[in-house]
Prior knowledge:
Number of domains: 3
Low-confidence stretches: none
Mean pLDDT: 93
CATH superfamily of the largest domain: FAD/NAD(P)-binding domain
Strand content: 15-25%
Strand order of the largest sheet: 5-4-3-6-17
Radius of gyration: 23 Å
Helix content: 25-40%
Number of strands: 17
Largest sheet: 5 strands, parallel
Bound molecules: flavin-adenine dinucleotide, iron/sulfur cluster
Number of helices: 17
CATH class of the largest domain: Alpha Beta
Structural class: alpha/beta
CATH architecture of the largest domain: 3-Layer(bba) Sandwich
Amino acid sequence: xxxxxxxxxxxxxxxxxxxxxxxxxxxxxxxxxxxxxxxxxxxxxxxxxxxxxxxxxxxxxxxxxxxxxxxxxxxxxxxxxxxxxxxxxxxxxxxxxxxxxxxxxxxxxxxxxxxxxxxxxxxxxxxxxxxxxxxxxxxxxxxxxxxxxxxxxxxxxxxxxxxxxxxxxxxxxxxxxxxxxxxxxxxxxxxxxxxxxxxxxxxxxxxxxxxxxxxxxxxxxxxxxxxxxxxxxxxxxxxxxxxxxxxxxxxxxxxxxxxxxxxxxxxxxxxxxxxxxxxxxxxxxxxxxxxxxxxxxxxxxxxxxxxxxxxxxxxxxxxxxxxxxxxxxxxxxxxxxxxxxxxxxxxxxxxxxxxxxxxxxxxxxxxxxxxxxxxxxxxxxxxxxxxxxxxxxxxxxxxxxxxxxxxxxxxxxxxxxxxxxxxxxxxxxxxxxxxxxxxxxxxxxxxxxxxxxxxxxxxxxx
Length: 462
Ligand SMILES: Cc1cc2nc3c(=O)[nH]c(=O)nc-3n(C[C@H](O)[C@H](O)[C@H](O)COP(=O)(O)OP(=O)(O)OC[C@H]3O[C@@H](n4cnc5c(N)ncnc54)[C@H](O)[C@@H]3O)c2cc1C
Ligand code: SF4
């Protein structure tokens, strides 16, 4: 057979990533998903890539991994560089899109992987794990800290979450000065306050935040627009534009009878107390019930499990409709957390002198709703009683708009900022992005917005 006619045989099975064994991880807060540990494993995984459309102009027909990534990161090119031994070139592509990739790749929902061609006939290429190995072991390059000379402009950013940090980093690259005003006394948004350390170790996150600061980003904590100042005052301090990146930090309540008990808490508050080590409840041997189906629910359940509780999750649809990532759901179940599907709470009985419980109803699935999932319909005559010593609600969040004049800012029905195609809100020289525009979404979506906003500001200031 000539070389040209030789068929390349690619493995359909992904190289397995490493995990901390369940019996160890249920008892501590160490990182669970260890990814790849050797370059050899990464190269083998890269060898499975089809290098889709390599002959074509990527701008005309980008490979699915690039097309579906919110940042349009060229993962095909990263993989090719790894196979050519050009690790620095691969890193340059990663840092072009992500200012804190060690953190992002640990929590990324992997839209690239979901659409990867290899996934149509076997396992998709484990793109976030490949990128994570590269940045963990070889990044950042010296170039990371280099910024263009000061062009004499300054921008204010509200919020130090993934959106705010990304805008700040890429503006500094353009030589633009930035000040972040953060409401809390801690930097990083949901990355720091909500995502638990067994998915995102704090040593990794803190190192990346410190690296960002070294690029010359000025940050003031405990500064909130509602409490300390208004939009007009920021402009009076000679800022040329303002970027709003305040996320969706206000948790929604189910609004059910009995909810005002102290044993019913919001997942955001519960996770924050744990992550910041403030007022962690004693859950040893307690029955904890978490209500919801997103990352917030699985994270709260897994934290409660590690605090010694017997944990279950109640979700009103089926497993395939849960917003949490597939791997997170698998990890949650593997850790011994039971997920009860097609169930909805109706009333809490939480008085201290009665047996504490949740009365629930069964649900069945109806037509597809606005979220693209089937509507849960209550089956009126079936009631189920679930015992609970501690109840955590994780049913969604929205933007806290206090301090913003909603007569001036155009706001959607779901309490997000309306922006135009250049990220400007209805108030002149004020831009917005991340969760406070998209609704609760993802870190990589906020990072993608952040880079685009920095580019827009640079164009606008020029
Ligand atoms: C429990 C949990 C788990 C998650 N897991 C994942 C995951 O695995 N993968 C993933 O991709 N995404 C995950 N997410 C979602 C992700 O964290 C968010 O999409 C992302 O953090 C949004 O970034 P942001 O910068 O827009 O907002 P945020 O991260 O919410 O940051 C907003 C910042 O603004 C500050 N702020 C608020 N109001 C004001 C004000 N008035 N003035 C000044 N500052 C203000 C806040 O204190 C905060 O620091 C998770 C979210 C939660 C809650
Ligand atoms: S879509 Fe998958 S197979 Fe195709 S280039 Fe990207 S990583 Fe490789």
